[in-house]
C-alpha cells in the first residue's frame, strides 16, 4: 500500500473515537467504545507494522538523537506517516484517559469536550489543560473520593 493512501486511512481509524468522546460523551455507545483501548491500539499496530521492518535504521537514530538524522527520518512519506501514527495513537490514548478520568471524577462533559478537541488538535496542550482542570477540581473537592490519590 502506498504511503499517501495509508496516511489517508489513519484518520478513519481514530476519528470515530474522538467524535464519540466529544459529541456523545454520555451515551452507552461511547462508554462501550472507551471500555477497552481499541482506538489507540489500531494506529499503534499500524505504527508497529511500519517501524518493525525499519528498526535497523530507526533504532540507532533514536539511541543518539541528532536533529539532522531525525529530520531526515521524518522528512520522507514513510517517516511522516510513522510520526503521524505515533501522534494519533498517543493522543487518542491520552484523550481516552482524560475521558475516563473525568467521568470517574464527575467532571462535566461540557468542560471536558473542548479539552478533548484541544487534545485531538494539540495533544500535549490538551493534556496540560486537563491536568490543570483536574488539579483545580481536586483542590475544590469536586472529584470523587474513590479516586483521590491516584496518579495521573
SS class: mainly alpha
Radius of gyration: 18 Å
Shape: globular
Strand content: under 5%
Low-confidence stretches: 145-152
Number of domains: 1
Question: Which features would summarize this protein structure in a list?
Answer:
single chain, 152 residues, mainly alpha
Note down, in words, how this protein is organized.
The protein has 152 residues and is mostly helical. The protein has one domain. The protein contains eight helices and no strands.
Topology:
Layout: H1 3-23, H2 28-35, H3 38-51, H4 55-63, H5 67-74, H6 77-105, H7 109-121, H8 123-139
Quick recap:
It contains eight helices and no strands.
